[in-house]
Amino acid sequence: MTSQPLVDFDRLTAGIESKAAQYASAVPFPHIVIDDVLTADAFAGCVREFPPTEDPFWKGYLHVNETKYANTQPDTWGDALTAVAREFVSPQFVGWLEQLTGIPALLPDWTMDGGGLHQTLRGGHLNIHADFSTHHVHENWARRVNILLYLNDEWRDEWGGHLELWDKGMSSVQGRVSPKGNRMLVFTTSGDSYHGHPDPLVCPEDVARRSMALYYFTEEERAVRRSTDYRARPQDGVKRVAIWADKNVVDLYDRAKRRLRLDDDTAQRILARIDGVRRRK
């Protein structure tokens, strides 16, 4: 019996040379947006299976610079979500990413270090940032490529949540990506690939901004560690002090996580406690 296709590889590979050129020349950093990545049935299956907001496996990352939830355990996901994630770590998909980005020898990460399923609820946000640079277990793995697949059955522009792409100097936003369902953003991870959705979502209480994220690495002799680098926008005013202070707390936690091999459950408890103290001040 032939299994049903999940990823529309015909769409992905069509005109790959043109897509690669578009990717390389994109502003403000190499990226591309591709719609209808999954087949219609596969996308519908992922939407049906996406864990509800009250699912016990969500871990909250609730502090100044972000208020989102993540599930990094594929063994707790439904069959459709797991199957799609496995496609994204398959040799066929990784080979396509190498062609698209021009980065050879990419390593997929089934441990979902920073990836997995993500959801942000009404009022949630993610400040502008450049991502952490090395894997927390394989410290010679340098993070090179991100993919974000949006799994929203419906998303209206007035709800906010567009991913903003900022220039290197953090002077202006250069692009916005709506989290439309079955849309994938692929971009190169670097020290200045600044992105985020910093304004609070105004979606209904029973709606979440949902996505699947996977990260790809290359093995380096000496990978340079950098924690998530949150940045203030010009309009953030005095808020920039809190953004800077929280960024330094996250950096301290990142160092401790690597040295002490702390897990994400511990991260959740620490960040929630810090956020609770901050809110009481």
Structure description:
With 281 residues, the protein is α+β, with helices and mostly antiparallel strands. The protein has one domain: Jelly Rolls (Sandwich). The protein is 30% helix and 25% strand. It is built from seven helices and 13 strands. It has helices at 9-13, 16-25, 40-49, 79-88, 91-101, 239-260, 264-280; strands at 31-35, 59-63, 66-71, 107-108, 116-120, 126-130, 141-150, 163-166, 173-177, 183-188, 195-197, 209-219, 229-230. Strand 2 (59-63) and strand 3 (66-71) form a beta hairpin. Helix 2 (16-25) packs across helix 5 (91-101) and helix 3 (40-49) crosses helix 4 (79-88). The longest helix has 22 residues, at 239-260. The model has no long low-confidence stretch (mean pLDDT 92).
